[in-house]
């Protein structure tokens, strides 16, 4: 079974960006995330939504 939630570090690997950039995207509400206890997690669906939003804004 594929994971439903990723750590910010795992999300960074999937997006091929740095960990700090993932935290920047979370802080700016461009990338949705949740908190479980003291841990931050990024739903896989949020990564897909983020990439879709980037594609929608990209010039043709």
UniProtKB/TrEMBL annotation:
Residues 5-52 form the Helix-turn-helix domain. Signal peptide: none annotated. Gene3D superfamilies: 3.90.105.50. Pfam families: HTH_17. It comes from the Bacteria. Coiled coil: none annotated. NCBIfam families: excise. This is Helix-turn-helix domain-containing protein. It comes from Actinomycetospora endophytica.
């Amino acid at each position: 079974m594929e994971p439903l939630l990723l750590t910010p570090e795992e999300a960074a690997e999937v997006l091929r960006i740095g960990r700090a950039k993932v935290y920047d995207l979370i802080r700016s509400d461009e990338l949705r995330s949740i908190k479980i206890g003291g841990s931050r997690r990024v739903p896989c669906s949020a990564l897909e939504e983020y990439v879709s939003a980037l594609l929608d804004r990209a010039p043709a």
